[in-house]
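## retry 2 of 3
previous attempt timed out at serialization; input unchanged, resubmitting
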Amino acid sequence: MTRRERVLAAIERRPLDRFPTDMWATPEVVDRLKQHFGVSSLHEVWDCLEIDGIVHVGPEYRGPKLPDLGPNRKVDEWGMVYQWQEYETGGYWEQVHYPLANAETIADIDAYAWPRREWYDFSVMPDLPEAHGDRAREYGYIAIFYYHNKLRGLEQSLVDPLLKPEFTRHLIRRIAETFLEIHEEGYRAGKGVVDITQVTDDFGSQHGLLISRALFAELYRPWMEKAIALAKAYGLKVFHHDDGAVREIIPDLIEMGIDVLNPIQWRCPGMEQEGLARDFAGQVCFHGGVDNQHTLPFGTPEEVWAEVEHNLRTLGCLGTGYIVAPCHNIQPVTPLENILALYRAAKELGPLYASRPAGRPS
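## retry succeeded, writing output
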């Protein structure tokens, strides 16, 4: 199987020659791996580790010129401002400005400079296969709740539905319609080229949902369903990322039509591999599951190997329907030998568990 065929077969829960692999990692980790292997690009690192991978592709921005805020700050086309923040363990771009934080009325929402599809050049999309070879290709990122957080600020976005219900419904509608307008243009341009899109979000904390399931169903689910239906109309697989303890809404997500569930933070309550495999194997493809809060940064290579095997036996219990990957970005504090152990284990054990399924946990 080619790398693209392997990833798509896992998503569709079809037979595999081995379980596919993917990687999410911080820039510091990628640079360390480049140096270790003596290569110059991320995809060369993937080649060295025999990672199948899902490549992220998209249009070129051609909208209004974005202001230059200096070396440690940047702004995106939504007007969200980020500052580079260095920590002992690595650096991150952290949001410091929320464009609609001070909005009070529906008129304020409508006056905001919403991104438009004319701001993006989609003519590059048909050239993607030549640029990325035989890897599965993903375009798009629709995250309605998360962008509510990013436009208003997390705390304000959580109280908005209670204090300003009509304002909130209008804001969510504008966010969703903006995403749908831009993404339909991208799906049209990438038809036959792009395989996967993200209708994704961040509803989970380490201990449970950030909002109630009822509020999710009332405000966000209807628009997510529209986004999923649009993606399916163009033949795309739907990848859904949701950190933390989201067990309560997994049945909703599957009912809505997601194809891939990421990142499987199994240390969070309700996200244990056995339970997810028992209840949802065969209904969705799992992606991730190798813990990057404890096992990868602080475990031994033997513990990483054991965790990969445990995931193959549980999340991959049907011999398919699982993509081996870290459960989020591999962090700079992670020892190199643990990263190598992750992908060696996947390479050596992946064919065994694909050919001899363990069977659904009881």
